[in-house]
Amino acid sequence: MRFPVKLDRQSEQTLHEQLYDGIRRAILSGALPPGHRLPSSRELADLLEISRSTVTDCYEQLLTEGYFEARAGSGTFVTRQIQKTRPAERNAAGSSRGPRLTAHLSSYGKALSAPLSMENGKPEPDICFFGWRPAFDEVPITQWTRVQGRRSRRIDPALLDFTQDPLGYKPLREAVTRYISRSRGVKCNPEQVLIVLGLQQAIDLVSRVHIEQGDAVAVENPGYPLARKSFALAGGRIIPVPVDEAGLAVDQLSRSAARNIRLVYVTPSHQFPTGALMPLPRRLALLSWAKKSGAMILEDDYDSEYRYSGKSIPALQGLDEGSSVIYVGTFTKVMFPALSIAYMVVPTGLADIYARARTLASDQVPLPLQDSLAEFIDGGYLERHVKRMRSLYDQRRTALVVSLEKHFGERVLIRGDNAGLHLLGQFQTQLSDAEIAGRAAKAGIGIVSTADYYCGRPAAGEFLLGYGNLTPDQIEDGIKRLARALGK
Fold first, then answer.
1. Which of 141, 193, 211, 253 could form a disulfide with 173 if both were Cys (CB 3.0 to 4.6 A apart)?
2. Residue 95 lies in a domain
């Protein structure tokens, strides 16, 4: 008697698991067709040289799941209700092409068939000048784990339940309110603060709440591509607005082609990716425009904590007298990206709406994590860490500027180096951006072109060079290897 299941006694899987999986696959592939009579448990145990109880347990499980049907006095059969499924079609080379997609997709789903600009499945190079990475080796892990351990030992049972507050854990909202009031000049109360799963959820919520199909949405050009993608998928009509040395060109918002703008997305404290700082006169002009037009401003307070010349500029939200600004901040750079916690400050009249929108969008950030973060902020750990890191990042920024000037000289234009964890380097070369990135990758260097950050024609040879997670020695080695790769 032949049976289409083989067992491997060297496998990590138990014999029961192997037999169960093997029979299921044989039924679904058609090797055991509907109506086929199975050998008795004793017969199969003798054939496979395993215990009868293993076969019996397997048969009972498959009978319970509906793969088998028992007929009194006749035996056990593969159920006739199972439709035979065909294995995936194979091409001439014999490799599976996978199942054909038959699901109906919305316009949103169809738009996502193309990869996002920041997706990258390639192996990571030796030295990565990635602007989104802080200094992982300097994260205050000891203090953070102590706080988590202390909080977990006396955890409130209520933190193990679903939250009753859709805005987020109130002690964390109170801690965030005090923190951004001190450090960023934000004017709010805890009832305006919303705890969310990172910047992207904040952008998605704003898109859902404020954008109708065809609404004009102004974005910085160049600017953050995933924000632009989110607005467009929500039905927004994207209006690219130029960026100069003072950030978003506010005067462009009033021009005829850009009238009836419903939302404008800005990074005024450290424009991404150029690093421009929006000065007070332009901030006031933006707020005045928003008040007159009735548009909302989404302020992404990107990299605001790290400024190396002069004092940090208070947030745009602190100047707003017309309830026109939605403010977003994150712990991505001041702690670490995997923390995945951001906070929004919304006008008082919108708090309930945003709370309900967040409830429909996702579950809460885990309450024990919010509880630990609240103590970490109120205990002063966060602000002490930021102060220490500001000095360290300044050293790394200087090391990068010096290395670029040393190895490239006039062949590179440096911009946006007075704040944040990255600068822009525009290389004077005949090579395309793809050729520059390719040569860098072969030399073990990871750099990111700003081409995807532009609407329309990008700046040639312009790359984002991050230094947060690199030591001065790594920076020097990386830039030296990059210079050799691009040639002199």
1. 193
2. no
Contacts of 196 (CB under 8 A, 6+ apart): 168, 202, 205, 341, 342, 343, 344, 358, 365
Tokens of 33: 């067709």
**Low-confidence residues of the chain, pLDDT below 70?**
1, 83-102, 117-121, 256-259, 488
Within 8 A by CB and 6+ apart from 372, the residues are 144, 147, 148, 151, 152
pLDDT at position 310 is 73
**CA distance linking residue 37 with residue 281, whole number of Å:** 84
| Residue 289 shares a structural domain with residue 404 | no
Spatial separation of the C-alpha atoms in residues 114 and 101, rounded to whole Å: 15
CA–CA distance, 362 with 196 (Å, rounded to integer): 9
**What tokens does 278 get?**
């929006």
E strand segments, 6-102? 68-71, 75-78
Residue 35 placed within a domain? yes
Q: Which residues contact 95 (CB under 8 A, 6 or more apart)?
A: none
Packing angle of the helix pair 381-408, 472-486 (nearest 10 deg): 30
- Examine residue 244 and state whether it is found in any structural domain, yes or no: yes
pLDDT at 209: 96
The whole-number pLDDT of residue 110 equals 82
CA distance 195 to 206: 14
Query: Structural domain tally of the chain?
Result: 3
Q: Is the dihedral of CA 156, 161, 167, 168 positive or negative?
A: positive
SS3 at position 69: strand
Report d(CA 74, CA 266) in Å as an integer.
74
Please check whether residues 400 and 373 belong to one and the same domain: no
Tell me what pLDDT residue 2 has: 83
The pTM score is: 0.84
Which pLDDT score, from 0 to 100, does residue 221 have?
Answer: 96
Range of the domain at 333: 158-380
pLDDT of residue 162: 81
